[in-house]
Task: structure prediction
Amino acid sequence: MGEGSLKPAELAPYIVSSLIEADITEADIKAFVGDVKPYGFPSLAVDLPYIDLLRELLSGTKTRVTTVSSYPLGGMTTETKIRQVQYASEHGAYDIDVSMNYLAIKSGDFGAAAEDVRRVVEAAGSLKIVMIPQVAILTNEEKLRTCEALLGAGCRTIKTASGFGWKTEVEDVLLIKRRFGDDLEIEVSGGVRTTEDALAMLKAGAEKLHTSTAFQVMGLDKELSYRKKESA
Amino acid sequence: MTMKRNEFAATIDHTYLKIHTSDAEIKRVCLEAEKHGFASVAIFPIAVPLAAKMLAGTGVEVCVALGFHLGSYPPELKAYETEDAIRKGATEVDLVMNVAAVKAQQWDLLREEFRVFREAAGDHVAKIILETCLLTDEEKTRACELAKEAALDYVKTSTGYKEGATVPDVKLMHRTVAPEVKVKASGGIRTLDDAMAMLDAGASRLGTSSGVSLMKAFDEQFD
Result:
């Protein structure tokens, strides 16, 4: 692309580096933090059981702890999400990425989708709620109506997708940005793999980029320890 | 294996775990399950109230998919999720095991998870999903032994979001847990040959989204 004004290394302040998978152990989290800590990312994302460990490993740094709820499929009830959000809050996470009720959205029931968001936001206290509209499964009209619903329900930030195969296109960010401007903070996830992807998303209006391949996105010739284990 | 049509249908958990689903799709799946006499409809917690309403009085169970699909959070949250689903109308509960606990050999944590799951499930059929594709044979065996110790009703191979059931895994699981605990094979079961191979290997229940086409194939083969 080449039109971005940032160099790869300057991408770090926008990157949320995540390590969320079924088989991630404490040892993996420790190795992961060892790998990424020097880059001063704004946030690292881990699953619920590792909030305490991550806070400990990041103490003295400005990097925050992000976690997830009803993730990544969005099948859980409002009550279960509230319980998970309370857990994250009690354990000191900074923010939590919460899947929306895609069944309600795909059934055209935006009232029910908004009610779910409203109750989750209400239960969050000072924990920041980031809702996931999962743009890849929505029509353009559904994307806009979903964002409208979550804004009306008191959520100010979205993470566009959950990753795990559900992607975000630059057009999605442009569409949402054009309609909602600065009222809605957009974090992008799903398909941010290269420096070009990252610069294009930022140019379109994204404020943060979630990725499980942070080094690759920054154009660095190194791999996360977990990835090395995976490919071994 | 010789089996009557209704016996074969009663092995199938008619599974609909797509994230882009609508009420109309859930209704369709419930009607199909009733028509064919499947064991259950397997769905996400958010779809349970609708499915419970649709299936009331049909004899088809409302099977809920819990912990999907990473399963990586503490027992207390899993217990809550289980109770919540049952309160809303689920009659069978399928929960993803904490795979990370197995990987880190935190057997006490796993034992605790299975115990609270059994307790939260009460008299409802409780199935624990191992996600076998992530485990060594030794880890599968250990998880099966703990499931048996906790008196769970089924050990289940897969979420369907990664690699699915294999005949060797079903055999290993059946050998380890039978007769007290049953085996559910799930993930990648699309043809009648797949289904029969799993049943021959020791599975009592099949988790599949291909139930309707499996019944069609059954009729063609055995009519």
About this structure: Residues 50 and 56 of chain A are 10 Å apart (CA to CA). The domain at 8-220 of chain A is CATH 3.20.20.70 (TIM Barrel). Chain A has ten helices and eight strands. Chain A touches chain B through 34 residues (CB under 8 Å).
